[in-house]
Amino acid sequence: MFGFLGKKTGSLVGVDIGSSSVKLVALSKNGKSFKLDAYAIVSFSPNAVVDGNIQDMTEVGSAIEKAVKVAGGKLSSAVTAVPASAVITKNIEMSNAFTEFELEDQIKVEADQFIPYPIDEVALDFEVIGTSKNSPNLNEVLLVACRKTDVDQREDAVSAAGLNSEIVDVDTFAVERAMSIIPADNDSELLTGIVDIGASTLTLNVVKGSEIIYTREQAFGGNDLTNLISQQYGMNVEEVEQSLRLGETAEEIQEGVVLPFRNTVAQQVSRALQFFYSSGGHGELVTLYLAGGVSGIDGLAGQLEEELGLNTQVANPFLSMNVGSKVNSARLVRDAPSLVKATGLALRGLEG
Question: How far is CA 177 from the centre of its chain?
Fold first, then answer.
């Protein structure tokens, strides 16, 4: 069995391995208050991670190591995550008469029936959610499984950077955790959306209460913008990414490339929402949050709010946190939307 779901106490640095960069977040907790101690974002080449699979372990490990140094270097243990697309989850009902060890054996039997891989190639974990609504003698159990190779890749990358890989989580669980601290309406029946627009993928998650009830991925992301600018203006990819991240793109590029791309982003977000609404039975979103590097394009939130008629905000998981004195606050405002997942991972280490 593997530690996707078990509780872990003690501070862990959250390490989000994306398709174009590593995002690292270190948090601490005093009572009920969280503090951002440090963070870092380090890019790597487009071929280092492809479709969620780490292709160049050395480069990704080096990026994590550099991120640790940027963050201060006094970090030892980490939690990272496998992509939801690599994970199978299933709710099952099991007798509450089983001991923990007996339940673990039964879980393996159950998993073998619906996982399309040999059971010895699979990392498994489970969590007892509570008593079943169907019978007081049954427990509802959440089962999580993925191929061990997906877990091993993340562990190896973290270990290559000199960190102990304490937990490998699932990225949707990290997003749920981060959303729980982003100010929102307290009505647990209302629906909140968060669109993560990364380098190669746009992901819409819809949250009800504290649970993601809908997820959809589309093959679209910031790489399209980066490559377009690189080709048209003869800049290397690293220069383009740096200028976009720091808001230092030339006015000519803004008007000729970035603004038209913003319109394309709005169309893609609208398309994702249309798929959600056509899935039926959920209701209307009350708020849409934007995450990921592309969300930082000037005016995107306002354009979406106007076109969709939906309250749209750029996600910032640090609004209610204290921020360490060594953190560049101005840069944090720009980077915060890209750090949602890494923040959710760091929060995992602070669960009691």
Answer: 10
Per-residue DSSP letter, 162: T
User: pTM for the whole thing?
Assistant: 0.90
- Residue at token pair 């994590």: 64
Residue whose C-alpha is closest to residue 237's, from 270, 199, 181, 290: 199
Strands of 132-244 (E only): list them. Answer: 138-147, 164-170, 191-197, 202-208, 211-218
Q: How does pLDDT run across 105-120, given as a tens digit for each residue?
A: 888 888 888 888 888 8
52: left (phi over 0), alpha (psi -120 to 50) or beta: left
36-57 pLDDT, tens digit per residue, is 999 999 999 888 999 889 999 9
CA angle in degrees (0–180, nearest 5) for 324-328-331: 135
**What's the first-to-final CA gap in the chain, in angstroms?**
21
Q: Scanning the structure block, which residue is given the tokens 């991670």?
A: 49
Burial of 319 (0-12, 13-18, 19+ CB in 10 A): exposed
Domains and CATH numbers, the chain: 1-182+318-352 (3.30.420.40), 183-315 (3.30.420.40)
